[in-house]
DNA sequence: GCAATAGTTAATCAACTTGACTAACGCTCC
DNA sequence: GGAGCGTTAGTCAAGTTGATTAACTATTGC
């Protein structure tokens, strides 16, 4: 990291972005509060707020009352200063897109979804226009679009890998979308976004770090280290389906997918006399012996994760994790304690909405904040 | 992170620390170079350099020549502006301490070691005094001491865990050392320090991230993510000895220590007709069939690591890893390719000196730099 | 009417920049 | 081989930007 150097202009830009960041983080503050936190003087605070309100980035949302003296103005970041769009891409029978438009405060302003077999670029563009119309915004006013994908995005190569949705594996797609939409387009793995949702709206709010095991048709793992997601060399971090089980080679080789992937869960359910169409249905209908057996397999995979990462918490999420709930999480905890010296806490997901879309929404909102703050710092507004 | 706000004093402090950081990072620079990189004007650069040289933090080390115009002064950070001490703690028969005193440039100034059964505090203090005397420095002039420990230091609780060296498990020891020495005392796991050595003096210089498997009496793993080490919730990240092998329970339970720990390696060697006193001797004397069998076991453990983290590189280090060299690394690569779809690169360590002490030296030097830079930023020197 | 507080104004101060200037060095031309 | 010229390192002086201090005005509650 290069440390910053510069002249008084840099100083003003820094003070403005520090102030805006405080308003974004803490919600509502008076000038006095800002003075206290930033350590700036009264006239400077006033000048900074004048510029921020002139630029439409901050607004007065009320006045104090009760104490002696004149009432102080209460400021907040202007929620309408920017809008971002979160889109969750899914493959059911045909490509399906769910989208939410939210403002700078993270409030949902519009929601839409579309089932489209066509080229992703016009499909996304149409969805974005639809949302803007619904929200009564000028088309193109959403400066940031966050995609949630069932695959991994390699930003260096500009290509989405391991994705089953037709049309979405085309190299350069994300860049094409960015130019077509005139917006920054971010893309991330659905499991990673579910972890973001878990941190901000689930059970992982208080912990320093955690791992989220995504347990659906396939297996995945998101690793959140102090709020930053670990992606790995080629976006392959968390591919725990490949964790080996036993020393078998060739045809005897077994990995965690063979043990706890969708088909394996259904087979295990059948062994226990449970007839279900999907793994999550099997788990929801599960008898204690079946859940015990499944928990032991999950604990096996998590033991490897815990031995490598030592996270304070592992969250069980995805369709199966949610269906299993506390009953499954408690059994996994017991199985882990019984088989290893690791005492990592295990919990079921606390997110009730669509975790991928929700996570994309949080990610979009945060990226938008960052964008606005750095824009302020880089290009000091003209007098 | 709170963004900085402040007045012109902050600006000066920022410019000084940015300039000093550049000198520390890049070695030697002229005023013109500094001007270009920082974007500051000529008079400001001169003023900053005048202050840095007055404070003894920078020195003129030469003059340019050859081109037209007057010769420009070449500056460098003053190596004698600060000294740090690295100490590696080991348990052989009795506690053994190896120590190096180095200057701000990382150059070794003095070296000493001592075998002491006594209380760690006087032992370390004596060693530190000895080094200062050797180097001709005023006692107490080393402001930073970095310990390398065969255990994990829990800074929050102030206690060193999982350490076998007598006297070193006492709670509050590190704080006691800091007050006794009048210096900042940092402590870290020996495997983590070996990873730091590997990044700066071994084969991991160019990669973004890597994992280092420490393979000696016990098994350990250090995880370097972009230059930052992952420590885990309770300093337990990288305890890969606990990675389970197969689904056995109770007495049948097997983990990676059972498979590839010191006794297991010796047993495997014996099966192959190799009689050796230590695992590293067994590996050094190893026949191809033995190495193949061992590589397969190592690859099993690394498969779990690679599936979770997806590092671009895994380094085999420790006594056994070094003894195995490329022969072992190549066999592990082949075994990993044969048993999983992961194509992580595997290499033998490139560090030839004592990796723990070397890593502690690098860590100490970097912490000292950081200390000097932040001191400069926090307390602007009086005029 | 008084005490306390929000916010503004005016004067001052600190730090950086611009542009001009001095001085040193190497090259070239006579 | 020496004088002159172009180029470049570094300094000086003036001006600009932005923050601070301290005084002042105005508003509110008691």
Automatic annotation (TrEMBL), chains A, B:
Residues 16-61 form the HTH marR-type domain. SUPFAM superfamilies: Actin-like ATPase domain, Winged helix' DNA-binding domain. It comes from the Bacteria. InterPro entries: ATPase_NBD, HTH_MarR-typ, ROK, WH-like_DNA-bd_sf, WH_DNA-bd_sf. It holds the Pfam family MarR_2. Belongs to the ROK (NagC/XylR) family. This is HTH marR-type domain-containing protein. It comes from Phytohabitans flavus. The lineage of its organism: Bacteria, Bacillati, Actinomycetota, Actinomycetes, Micromonosporales.
């Amino acid at each position: 990291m290069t440390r910053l150097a510069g002249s008084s202009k840099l100083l003003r830009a820094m003070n403005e972005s520090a102030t805006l960041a405080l308003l974004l983080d803490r919600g509502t503050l008076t000038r006095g509060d800002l003075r206290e936190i930033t350590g700036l003087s009264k006239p400077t605070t006033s000048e900074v707020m004048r510029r921020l309100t002139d630029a439409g980035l901050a607004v007065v949302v009320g006045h104090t009352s009760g104490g002696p003296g004149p009432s102080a103005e209460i400021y907040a970041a202007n929620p309408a200063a920017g809008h971002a769009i979160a889109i969750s891409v899914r493959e059911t029978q045909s490509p399906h897109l769910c989208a939410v438009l939210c403002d700078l405060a993270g409030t949902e302003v519009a929601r839409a979804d579309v089932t489209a077999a066509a080229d992703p670029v016009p499909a996304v563009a149409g969805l974005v226009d639809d949302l803007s119309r619904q929200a009564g915004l000028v088309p193109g006013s959403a400066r940031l679009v966050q995609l949630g994908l069932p695959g991994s995005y390699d930003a260096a190569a500009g290509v989405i890998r391991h994705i089953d949705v037709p049309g979405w594996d085309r190299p350069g797609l994300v860049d094409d979308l960015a130019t077509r939409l005139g917006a920054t387009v971010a893309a991330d793995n659905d499991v990673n976004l579910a972890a973001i949702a878990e941190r901000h709206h689930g059970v992982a709010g208080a912990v320093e770090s955690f791992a989220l095991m995504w347990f659906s048709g396939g297996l995945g793992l998101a690793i959140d280290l102090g709020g930053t997601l670990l992606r790995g060399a080629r976006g392959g971090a968390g591919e725990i389906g490949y964790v080996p089980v036993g020393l078998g080679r060739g045809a005897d080789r077994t990995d965690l997918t063979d043990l706890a992937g969708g088909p394996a869960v259904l087979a295990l359910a059948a062994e226990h006399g449970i007839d279900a169409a999907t793994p999550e249905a099997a788990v929801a209908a599960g008898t204690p012996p079946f859940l015990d057996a499944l928990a032991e397999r999950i604990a096996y995979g998590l033991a490897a994760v815990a031995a490598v990462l030592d996270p304070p918490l592992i969250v069980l999420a995805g369709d199966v994790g949610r269906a299993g709930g506390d009953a499954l999480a408690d059994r996994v905890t017991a199985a882990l304690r019984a088989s290893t010296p690791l005492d990592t806490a295990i919990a079921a997901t606390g997110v009730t909405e669509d975790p991928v879309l929700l996570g994309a929404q949080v990610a979009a909102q945060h990226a938008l904040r960052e964008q606005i703050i750095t824009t302020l710092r880089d290009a000091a507004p003209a007098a």
